[in-house]
Design brief:
heterodimer; A: alpha+beta; Alpha-Beta Plaits; 5-stranded antiparallel β-sheet; 4-stranded antiparallel β-sheet; 9 strands; B: alpha/beta; Rossmann fold; 3 domains; 38% helix
C-alpha cells in the first residue's frame, strides 16, 4: 500500500531540489509529489506518495529530517484524513458523444470546464481511487490529454501523523524544544 | 558600522575561533584574500585544493574544532570535492568557502563558474549560496553551528563575488534561525527501558564503539559502562582509541581486517551494543550472516542510520554521551566471566597462531616497521595514514591508548588523504609528535603538499612504505583474480631525491637493522623528514574477510614461525 507522508519545509530556493535529490540518492520511489504554500508565508508543504513498506517509510522520514530545511515530517497513511487529487482530463467528444461525457461527469460530481467542437475538459477532485475510476470510464471515449496534481492530504480534527523517529527535530521531546544557544 | 562582505566573513570566522585557514586564491575570492591580511588568521597556501580540504579535515579531527578550507570558483572549488566527500563519510566538521561568479552572472556559464551548491548537495551536511552581503553573518554562524553540532559534517558556503565587495551594516547575529535543525539529544525513557531489559538478559554482550564515541566525547561513559556490565569493547577503524588497546576489555579493531578474537566475539555474541557507529559493510561482512544470534541496541545521533543496514531491537536516537549518562544509572552490575573466558581463549589461540611473527629473512615488513615505530614513539604520536595495506597494518600494529590519535579516511577510503591531513593535524597540535604512515601509491596522489610541509616547516615525520605496488589492490588480485597484476605494479621515482628537492631530509631504509636507527634519526629532526622503507613487495594484510563472507569466515595469517625458526 502506498504511504502518504507530509513534510513541512522552509520556503527557500533549492529546497525542492534537496528533497528530490535525497530520493534519487537513497533510491526511494515516489509515486507522486505535491508542493504548495501553507498558512505560513515562509513554510511550504509537501505531500508525498511512496511505494514502500513501513521500514522504508521510516528511513524516508529520518532522511528528510537530516535536511536542514525540513521542519516536520508525518506519516498520515493510517490516520483519519482527507485526501484529494485533482485531474484535468481532455476527452475526445464529438457533439454526439458529449452527452455521455456530461453524464459520467455528473455521476462523479466532476465538472466540465471547457467545451470545444471535438473535445471537452473534465475537472475532477477526489481521492485517487475516485479519479482513477472516472479515468477508466472515460478512456474508451479517447483521452487526449490528462494532468493530475498528485495527492494532497490533511489529518481530520486535531490529530497529526505518526513520527517514527521521536527526538528528531524535537518531535516528542521536551528537552529538544529549548532554544538553540550556540 | 558598514563593512564589506569579505570583511564580514573574516569578522565572523574570527568570532568562530578560526585561526588557521587552508586555501589557494583565485579570481573569485580575491576580495576575501585582500582583507584577510587585516585579520589574525594564518593562511596556509596549499598546492592543490584537495590538499586544503584534507588539511582542514586533519585539523578538525586532531583538534575537535571546525577546519576551514578556501578555494576560488570553478576548478578551484571542484578540486575540493574529494576532500568534502571524505569529510562527509567520516562525519568530520569542516567549512569550505568557495568563491562564485557575481550573482547576476550565476547560471550563465561565466568564466570559472561551476554549480558548486549543486555538485556538493549529496556530499555536504548542508550548503549555502550567498548572493548578498547582508546574508553573510547569518550564513557563517549557521554553517559553523551545523558543521559541529549533531552528527558533524562538511558545510560549503558558495560566496558570490559581488557579495564580497558590497558594503552593508555588520551586526553579529545572536540567534540561529534554523527551525528545521534540532539534532536529537536524549532518548525517550521507554527506549532506554527496552535497552536495559536486553542488557539484563544478555550473557555474551559486545560493545561496538565507533567514531561517535570520540565525537561526542563519551570515553568516560564508555569505560564506566563496559566495566559496570563487564562487556568487551570492539572498535571500528575510526573508533580506535575509544578504549585503550591494552585494556583487558578491549578487543581492538573489528571488521574486514579485524583481529580474529574480535570478529569471533561479534559473531557469537547474544547482544551487540552499537555506540556511535553505522554498521558499514567493512565492519559487518555479509549482512545476512552478521551476528545471527545477537539482539542489537543502537545508540546513534543520526536517526537515518538506525535500521539502515542492520535491523536493531532497540534504537536510542540521541547524543551518545547524554544517552549513556541516562542509561548507566538504570543498570545493575553484571558478570560475564564465562564469556570473557571464552574470548580470552580465542585471544590466546590467535596470539599463538597469527600475531606478530615475521620471517627473519632480511626483508622489511610494513607491519614490523609500524610495530617498531609504535615502540619507539611509546604509542603516543598522532598518526595519519593514506589508504591501503599500510593503513590496515597501522590500525592493527600501532596500538592506540588514547583517542584522537589516528587520522585516517575510513568511509571514503581516500588515497592521498595522509600527507595533507598530517599537515592539518600539525597545525592543530604543533607541539605533538606527528607521524604519517603512507604507501607509495597513496603518497604520490597528494605528494605536491610536500612543498607545503616544507614551506610551513610542518613537523611531520613521513614513514613511506614502498612496495612498488598498489598493495591492497594487488592483494585482492592475488586472492581473487589469480594473481593477474593489472595496473598495480608501480614504477616509482626516487622518493629520497624528491624529498631532498624540497629541502626535506630523507633516508632510504632497506635493512631490518636500519629501521630503529632511522626512526630515531627522524625523531631528532624538527620539521618535515621522510623515511622510505623498501618493504616486502607481495605481503598481504591478514586476517581478511572476503566480500560476501561472514565476519568469522576469515582468511587467517599464514604460519610464518617455521620459516622464522629456519633462518
Amino acid at each position: 500500500m502506498p504511504r502518504t507522508l507530509i513534510a513541512l519545509v522552509e520556503d527557500k530556493p533549492g529546497v525542492l531540489n534537496r528533497v528530490t535529490s535525497l530520493f534519487r540518492r537513497r533510491n526511494f520511489n515516489i509515486a507522486s509529489l505535491n508542493v504548495g504554500r501553507t498558512e505560513k508565508p515562509d513554510v511550504s508543504r509537501m505531500t508525498m506518495l511512496l511505494d514502500s513498506n513501513d521500514a522504508d517509510a521510516r528511513l524516508v522520514e529520518a532522511n528528510l529530517y537530516k535536511l536542514v530545511n525540513v521542519i516536520d515530517v508525518q506519516d498520515v497513511t493510517n490516520q483519519p484524513s482527507v485526501r484529494r487529487d485533482l485531474a484535468l482530463i481532455k476527452v475526445k467528444a464529438s457533439p454526439e458523444q458529449r452527452a455521455e461525457v456530461v453524464n459520467l461527469t455528473s455521476i462523479f460530481r466532476a465538472n466540465v470546464v471547457d467545451v470545444a467542437p471535438e473535445s471537452v475538459i473534465v475537472e475532477i477532485t477526489g481521492t485517487e481511487d475516485k479519479v482513477e475510476s472516472l479515468v477508466e470510464l472515460l478512456r474508451p471515449l479517447g483521452i487526449m490529454e490528462m494532468v493530475r496534481t498528485g495527492q494532497v492530504a490533511m489529518v481530520r480534527g486535531n490529530g497529526s501523523g505518526i513520527r517514527y523517529t521521536p527526538g528528531a527535530n524535537g518531535n516528542g521531546h521536551e528537552e529538544n524544544k529549548k532554544p538553540i544557544k550556540s | 558600522m558598514q563593512k564589506s562582505g569579505a570583511e564580514i566573513l573574516w569578522e565572523c570566522l574570527v568570532r568562530e575561533g578560526v585561526d588557521t585557514v587552508f586555501g589557494l586564491p583565485g579570481g573569485s575570492v580575491m576580495p576575501i584574500y585582500d582583507v584577510m591580511l587585516n585579520y589574525p588568521v594564518r593562511h596556509v597556501l596549499v598546492k592543490h585544493e584537495q590538499g586544503a580540504a584534507h588539511m582542514a579535515d586533519g585539523y578538525a579531527r586532531a583538534s575537535g574544532k571546525v577546519g576551514v578550507a578556501m578555494a576560488t570558483s570553478g576548478p578551484g572549488a571542484t578540486n575540493l570535492v574529494t576532500g568534502i566527500a571524505t569529510a562527509m563519510l567520516d562525519s568530520s566538521p569542516i567549512v569550505c568557502i568557495t568563491g562564485q561568479v557575481p550573482a547576476h552572472l550565476v547560471g550563465g556559464d561565466a568564466f570559472q563558474e561551476v554549480d558548486m551548491t549543486g555538485i556538493t548537495l549529496p556530499i555536504t551536511k548542508h550548503n549555502f549560496l550567498v548572493t548578498r552581503a547582508d546574508e553573510i553573518a547569518q550564513v557563517v554562524r549557521e554553517a559553523f553551528y551545523i558543521a559541529r553540532s549533531g552528527r558533524p559534517g562538511p558545510v560549503l558556503i558558495d560566496f558570490c563575488k559581488n557579495a564580497q565587495v558590497e558594503m552593508t551594516e555588520f551586526e553579529y547575529p545572536d540567534e540561529i534561525a534554523l527551525p528545521g535543525y534540532k539534532p536529537p539529544m536524549r532518548a525517550p525513557r521507554e527506549d532506554l527501558q527496552r535497552a536495559v531489559e536486553l542488557i539484563e538478559e544478555a550473557e555474551r554482550p559486545v560493545i561496538l564503539a565507533g567514531h561517535g564515541v570520540l565525537m561526542s566525547d563519551a570515553l568516560e561513559e564508555l569505560k564506566i559502562f563496559a566495566v559496570k556490565t563487564q562487556t568487551p569493547v570492539a572498535m571500528t577503524l575510526l573508533g580506535l582509541g575509544a578504549m585503550p588497546a591494552s585494556d583487558s576489555l578491549s578487543l581492538n579493531m573489528m571488521g574486514m581486517h579485524g583481529e580474529a578474537p574480535c570478529n569471533l566475539a561479534i559473531q557469537n555474541a547474544d547482544l551487540l551494543l552499537a555506540f556511535g557507529m553505522r554498521f558499514d559493510d567493512r565492519v559487518t561482512g555479509n549482512l545476512r550472516k552478521y551476528a545471527p544470534t545477537a539482539h542489537k541496541i543502537h545508540i546513534e545521533i543520526d536517526p537515518s542510520e538506525v535500521h539502515k543496514n542492520v535491523h536493531v531491537d532497540a534504537a536510542l536516537s540521541g547524543d551518545l554521551k547524554t544517552v549513556l549518562t541516562d542509561l548507566i544509572p538504570m543498570l545493575d552490575e553484571y558478570d560475564h566471566d564465562e564469556w570473557l573466558a571464552q574470548i580470552g581463549e580465542w585471544r590466546r589461540e590467535s596470539e599463538d597462531r597469527d600475531i606478530l611473527f615475521w620471517p627473519e629473512d632480511g626483508q622489511l615488513y610494513t607491519a614490523k616497521v609500524i610495530h617498531d615505530l609504535w615502540e619507539a614513539t611509546g604509542g603516543d604520536s598522532i598518526l595519519a595514514t593514506g589508504v591501503g595495506q599500510h593503513q590496515m597494518w597501522a590500525a592493527q600494529y600501532y596500538k592506540f591508548e588514547q583517542p584522537h590519535r589516528l587520522i585516517t579516511s575510513g568511509g571514503a577510503g581516500t588515497m592521498g588523504f595522509g600527507l595533507p591531513s598530517a599537515i592539518g593535524a600539525w597545525f592543530a597540535h604543533p607541539d605533538r609528535e606527528i607521524w604519517l604512515i603512507d604507501g607509495d601509491g597513496s603518497f604520490q596522489m597528494t605528494q605536491a603538499e610536500l612543498a607545503t610541509a616544507a614551506n610551513e616547516g610542518a613537523n611531520v615525520k613521513i614513514a613511506l612504505m614502498n612496495n612498488n605496488f598498489l598493495g591492497m589492490v594487488r592483494q585482492w588480485q592475488e586472492f581473487f583474480f589469480d594473481s593477474r597484476y593489472a595496473g598495480t605494479p608501480l614504477n616509482n621515482p626516487d622518493f629520497v631525491k624528491i624529498a631532498e628537492a624540497h629541502n626535506i631530509p630523507a633516508r632510504l631504509v632497506t635493512q631490518p637493522a636500519e629501521v630503529v636507527p632511522a626512526i630515531e634519526y627522524a625523531r631528532q629532526i624538527t620539521g618535515p623528514v621522510l623515511l622510505e622503507f623498501r618493504v616486502e613487495k607481495e605481503d598481504a594484510v591478514y586476517p581478511m574477510v572476503a566480500t560476501g563472507a561472514a565476519l568469522d569466515e576469515m582468511i587467517r595469517r599464514p604460519d610464518r614461525r617455521s620459516k622464522a625458526v629456519g633462518v
